[in-house]
Amino acid sequence: MPVNKGKSSRSALGGNPLAQSIFSKTEVETQPLAEVENIQDSINKNQESTSNNKDSINKNQESIFLNKSEREAVNLRLPLELNDWLNDLLKKGKRQHGAKIPKEVWVQAALELFRAMPVMWSEIDSEESLRETLNNIESRIKNLE
Fold first, then answer.
1. What CA–CA distances, in Å, run from 69 to 2, 25, 65, 135, 143?
2. What tens digit of pLDDT does each residue of 41-70 get?
3. What pTM value is reported for the model?
4. Nearest to 124 by CA among 115, 135, 133
5. Secondary structure of 23-67 as H, E, C letters
6. Residues sharing a CB contact under 8 Å with residue 103, sequence separation 6 or more, in sequence order
7. Are 66 and 108 in contact (CB under 8 A)?
8. Are 70 and 122 in contact (CB under 8 A)?
9. 95, 101 in Cβ contact below 8 A?
10. Half-sphere exposure (Cβ direction) of 129: Cα atoms closer than 13 Å
11. Which H or E run includes 142?
């Protein structure tokens, strides 16, 4: 036996005010087709010149860092202290600059910097060897200061 047998299907709040015709249609001004095509051509030319400017800037800088390419998701575990430091860095960056650089970009930058260093990473055979190499890099940097 249906529960709503004697009740109407109307809402207890009343009818939908948007269902009524309280708004009038706005008249849209149409532009001639030639004028629309001229506007589209000028937009396309502007986009091409912007693209050419970006290409020339990129060729002049030729950065090897943070290039956009196909990405793969990886699972990364960090010590709590390092993760907290990275989270603080992200928060401060957003507060000071209005936008945050994603954590994955910071990790990518660090790995690319490692790759650019004059170290034969493939010759490292243990965590101890890696620790020694990092300590050596640290001491060379401190000697430069």
1. 60, 47, 11, 31, 36
2. 666 665 565 555 455 444 544 566 777 778
3. 0.51
4. 133
5. CCCCCCCCCCHHHHHHHHHHHHHHHHHHHHHHHHHHHHHCCCCCC
6. 86, 87, 90
7. yes
8. no
9. no
10. 8
11. helix 127-144
In sequence order, the 6+-apart residues with CB closer than 8 A to the CB of 130 are: 124
Sign of torsion over alpha carbons 127, 116, 112, 91: positive
Span between the terminal Cα atoms of the chain, in Å: 86
Closest CA to 111 of 67, 144, 62, 145: 67
Joined tokens for residue 74: 């990886």
Question: HEC profile for 71-112?
Answer: CCCCCCCCCHHHHHHHHHHHHHHHHHHCCCCCHHHHHHHHHH
CB 114 within 8 A of CB 107: no
Structure tokens at 109: 């930058």
| pLDDT confidence of residue 43 | 64
Pick left, alpha or beta for residue 14 (phi over 0 → left; psi -120 to 50 → alpha; otherwise beta): left
CA distance 10 to 96: 53
